[in-house]
């Protein structure tokens, strides 16, 4: 049994018990588009306590809102078998009307109602349809089928009312229109523009980040990001990127577009399935340029913009409450987005340390898109990719020859000198000038004797013993 079959079975069980039951929302939209829904939702006039009585395995995920999750057989298993596979899941929600949304996100209370009233309280017409999988019949109280046919995203009823109820719906409008290549209906778009500054009311950084996390991995992400800008949402959630609009890109007077156009092009060139961290870093990779821009007679300069941008990216990630791993990856990508352009001239140890980083594939993808969007060669990307094929993990990141305990046994006291000496040994090891523990110890001796550990990689180790 697959999830679709189980969703039909849930509807059938509720019908046999005398209740109305229909597929609802996104799964209906996806089926009409010929897509495989990621999950199925059922709407019914059965109260939550009845649903829990009818099905042996349930989870009360939102009893006060009439939502019960029904668990089915484990994926890929027959009912009689055991195992650790996840069970099939279908959420069953009682038809309801929402009373009010004083926090701009969640209903204060709900009133159980009819299918029609349930449809009218949903967000967009294409998400407000029902489908009867038993009779193979569409139930559409809101005109969702016609809007889907016309490739329109339209709020149900009064758009301002829908967005006042739940401010996150404004971001969801951008995400849905981007995913399905829809045009936002004019009255709906106008309401978003009027209310965009209210997006932070009742909407946490985590929820905003989750919308961005989905939006930025869609193939049409560049269109979605530009829509955020045009609707006034970018200035509300990512004000740092707004100043890129209109900032010159390229030589003075050259018809190369502005920095915002460049960023959109980089996003477009990332390919069909980038990681969120890569896509977010691509959006932010030049965010430091507006603060570092200067002008010479023949060109614009943006000295140190990658470091300024990395600091801004860290602040943005913290504001959106991204995970530590996501934040560090985004910041690293922004800081290093120009680093490999000089890969052929780079000291071996510096290049190896970068190529050994777990985010190197994302960095190379960002380099490639950035260069292509600017009409520059991607030779440095191909060069690094060849090195990644030629160098093994042991070449890129060999076990250290010395550690802090080795220096302690030599009578050295832990402190800043430790790091300088260990860095010196590591750099020489990656350069290939130090290959054994004995050579590493000789290098430490020489650095301590000459006091030249400030520029350690210029030292040549003595012959191996």
Helix content: 40-55%
> What order do the strands of the largest sheet run in, or round the barrel if closed?
3-4-5-2-1-8-9
Number of domains: 4
Based on secondary structure, the structural category is alpha+beta
Strand content: 5-15%
Q: Oligomeric status of the shown chains?
A: single chain
**Mean pLDDT rating:** 90
What is the assigned CATH homologous superfamily of the largest domain? cca-adding enzyme, domain 2
Give the structure's gist in a few sentences.
The protein has 24 helices and 13 strands. It has 465 residues and is of the alpha+beta class. The longest helix is centred in the C-terminal third of the chain and has 16 residues, at 416-431.
Write a concise keyword list for the protein shown above.
4 domains; Beta Polymerase, domain 2; 465 residues; seven-stranded mixed beta sheet; alpha+beta; 24 helices; disordered C terminus; cca-adding enzyme, domain 2; single chain; elongated; two-stranded antiparallel sheet
Explain what the structure shows:
The chain is built from 24 helices and 13 strands. A hairpin with a 4-residue loop joins β12 and β13. The radius of gyration is 29 Å and the shape is elongated. The strands form four sheets. Strands 3-4-5-2-1-8-9 form a seven-stranded mixed sheet. Strands 6-7 form a two-stranded antiparallel sheet. Strands 10-11 form a two-stranded parallel sheet. It has 465 residues and is an alpha+beta fold. It has four domains: 3-143, Beta Polymerase, domain 2 (2-Layer Sandwich); 165-337, Orthogonal Bundle (cca-adding enzyme, domain 2); 338-397, no CATH class; 404-458, no CATH class.
């Amino acid at each position: 049994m697959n999830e679709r079959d189980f969703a039909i079975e849930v509807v059938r069980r509720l019908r046999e018990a005398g209740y109305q039951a229909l597929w609802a929302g996104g799964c209906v939209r996806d089926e009409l588009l010929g897509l495989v829904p990621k999950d199925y939702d059922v709407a019914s006039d059965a109260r939550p306590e009845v649903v829990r009585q009818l099905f042996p395995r349930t989870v009360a995920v939102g009893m006060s809102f009439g939502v019960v999750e029904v668990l089915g057989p484990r994926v890929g298993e027959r009912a009689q078998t055991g195992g650790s596979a996840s069970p099939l899941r279908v959420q069953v929600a009682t038809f309801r009307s929402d009373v009010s949304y004083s926090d701009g996100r969640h209903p204060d209370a709900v009133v159980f109602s009819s299918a029609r009233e349930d449809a009218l309280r949903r967000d967009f017409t294409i998400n407000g349809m029902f489908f009867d999988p038993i009779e193979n019949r569409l139930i559409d109280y809101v005109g969702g089928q016609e809007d889907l046919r016309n490739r329109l995203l339209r709020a149900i009823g009064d758009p301002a009312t829908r967005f006042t109820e739940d401010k996150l719906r404004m971001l969801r409008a951008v995400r849905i229109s981007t995913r399905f290549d829809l045009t936002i209906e004019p009255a709906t778009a106008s309401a978003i523009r009027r209310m965009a500054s209210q997006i932070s009311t009742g909407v946490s950084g985590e929820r905003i980040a989750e919308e961005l996390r989905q939006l930025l991995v869609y193939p049409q992400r560049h269109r979605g990001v530009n829509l955020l800008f045009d609707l006034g949402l970018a200035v509300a959630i990512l004000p740092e990127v707004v100043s890129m609009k209109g900032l010159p890109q390229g030589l003075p007077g050259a018809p190369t577009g502005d920095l915002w156009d460049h960023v959109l092009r980089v996003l477009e060139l990332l390919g069909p399935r980038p990681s969120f961290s890569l896509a977010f870093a691509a959006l932010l990779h030049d965010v430091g340029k507006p603060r570092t821009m200067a002008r010479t007679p023949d060109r614009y300069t943006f000295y140190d913009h990658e470091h300024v941008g990395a600091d801004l990216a860290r602040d943005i990630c913290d504001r959106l409450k991204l995970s530590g791993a996501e934040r560090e990856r985004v910041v690293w990508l922004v800081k290093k987005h120009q680093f490999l352009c000089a890969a052929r001239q780079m000291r071996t140890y510096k290049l190896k340390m970068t190529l050994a980083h777990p985010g190197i594939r994302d960095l190379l993808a960002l380099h490639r898109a950035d260069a292509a969007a600017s009409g520059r060669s991607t030779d440095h990307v191909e060069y690094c990719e060849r090195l990644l094929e030629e160098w093994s993990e042991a070449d890129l990141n060999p076990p250290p020859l010395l550690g802090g305990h080795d220096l302690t046994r030599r009578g050295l006291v832990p402190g800043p000198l430790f790091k300088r000496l260990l860095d010196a040994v590591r750099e020489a090891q990656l350069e290939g000038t130090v290959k054994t523990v004995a050579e590493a110890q000789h290098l430490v001796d020489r650095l301590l004797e000459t006091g030249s550990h400030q520029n350690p990689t210029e030292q040549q180790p003595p012959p191996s013993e």
